[in-house]
Structure formats: structure tokens, C-alpha cells
Design brief:
By secondary structure, this protein is mainly α. Helix content is 79%, strand content 0%. The chain has helices at 2-27, 31-39, 46-62, 67-90, 96-128. The protein is elongated and about 45 Å long.
Length: 138
Amino acid sequence: MKRTKILYWVFTGLFAFMMLGSAIPDIFSTQVAVEGFEKMKMPTYLTPFLGIAKALGVVAILIPGYPRIKEWAYAGLMFDLAGATWCIFSAGIRGGNLAFMIMPIVIGFLSYTYYRRNSLIFKHEYHKKGQGTQDTLL
């Protein structure tokens, strides 16, 4: 269990760092973020909205508890990454940008996988000790 917890926090920390690092320029509509949206032929008014959504998702995956919110946050962050990857590909931007998108997707997947393993281990130990049922944890 200790190994699983350590790996969860390593991958979650890396994922949160990457997502927050991409959210901050979007929130403040920096020149780099706006130019990126313009290259993909997307409306720049979405930039702050997506940045705030990413930042809230990062907060949700870092705060302990609230498993349902955490699940939605992981889904939202992965949709953001999948959408960004598709937009980059569709806009014809090839090379390093597209390859770079694989890294946060893989790290996000690993973070979510270890989150699920941690919660299943916790539920199993909690139930095994006779302290409650799975329903009490949801």
C-alpha cells in the first residue's frame, strides 16, 4: 500500500504541475496562450474559461476526499488534453507539439490508475475491519 500511495502522489504531483502550468497562461490570456489558440483557429475568448476549468480540476484532484468530484475532475482534465491534442492535429501543427501532448496524457492516466488503486485498497481494508460497508464511503 505504501508503494501505491507514493506512486499516486508522484504521478498526481507531476500531473497537477503540468496542468496548472498550462492553466495559468490561459487564465491571464497571455500572448503565448492567445497565439496558440489563434494557430488552432479557435476563439480566444475560450482561453480564460479553459484555464479556470483546468485550475479547478487541479485543485479537485489534490484535495483529499470528495471521490465523485475527483472522478469528474480527472475526466475533465483528460477531455481537455484529448481535445487539445485533436485541435493541434486538426490544425496541421505537427512535430514536437503533438508528441508533447502524449506525456501529460500518460501521466494523467497513471495518476488516475493509482488513485483508483488507493481507493480500492482503502475500501477493502475499511470493509475488512468491519467498520462499515462500501456505501458509507461514497
